[in-house]
Predict the structure of Histidinol-phosphate aminotransferase.
Amino acid sequence: MGSSNESCIAPSPAAVAAMADAATHANRYPGITGERLAQAIAGTLGLDAGQVVVGGGSLALLGHILSAYAPPGSSVIHAWRSYEAYPILIALAGAESVPVALDGEHYHDLAAMGEAITIGTRVVLVCNPNNPTGTVLEPGEIEAFLEKVPGHVLVVLDEAYREFSSPEAESGRLLERYPNLVILRTFSKAYGLAGARAGYLLAGPGVAANIRAVAPPFGLSSLAEAGALAAWADTEYLAESVSEVVSERDFLLAGLLARGLRIPPSGGNFLWIPAGARSLDLESSCVAHGVSVRAFPGSGVRVTISVRDASNAVLAAIDALRPQLP
Ligand code: PMP
């Protein structure tokens, strides 16, 4: 089991075949902006192709968003703890990172994030489901937040793990009402293409054009585009992969709850164990049981969902530490 929230399932065979085929034409450049993939995504979601920006992973796209919207001297609000790359990318853009603590149940504190907005705020990052705690905000909460955020502040909804939760409604419908919204997604998680590097974002046409303007050409390789196109079309494989991961997540969650641990419900392909001061001990115990997990010292341990043996090894690692875990 890896500890980077990768999928434990190989990509769709159709995607593998498409990448192999694309490799035979790799002497040619890809499209400048990945327009074939953008069109396919827009077609499925009922958006204009101009509203979709694709790139070599959602991390690269987030870098473009920040370079377009978070100039030096501005500030970017994000929850903490959340995705570790946020403060790094914000610093790379030369902006100031403003972390806002999660609430006591490991959810984004949207009220506090709204209150943290100042004249210098240009971007707010909302990670939903949140990495590493897995917590999911309801569509209504996000909408209420968007109502309050001033129009000059861009709200980036990072939905890297959305396929593993059951979003009641496609958040893309919010784009019509909130021109300051960007929805960031990836092929790295549920589609199992982390190594291929493909991601996409949805935005209003104006914001999408501003982001495309700062993205270097040929950012999406022809192999990644071919793999992502085939994976996007293979909806059956996606559904099967997701249900496999979700049922393993349910199994591990039940085992953790049965041991009296307080685990937040997760909408991702991972679970958060708030082990506090014992986080590093729990990580060592998991490693000793043959499973690689990610400890956030003093705070908790994130376990990426994998196969049954790995889940059982995590449970055994916990039993080896009990009763010291909080
Ligand atoms: N957002 C979140 C919340 C993530 O956890 C990750 C990967 N760990 C990413 C974005 C980046 O994913 P990628 O660049 O592979 O699309």
About this structure: The pocket of 4'-deoxy-4'-aminopyridoxal-5'-phosphate is lined by residues 5, 57-59, 83, 127, 131, 158, 160, 186, 188, 194, 199 (CB under 6 Å). Strands lie at 52-55, 75-80, 96-101, 121-127, 154-158, 181-186, 199-203, 270-273, 294-296, 300-304.
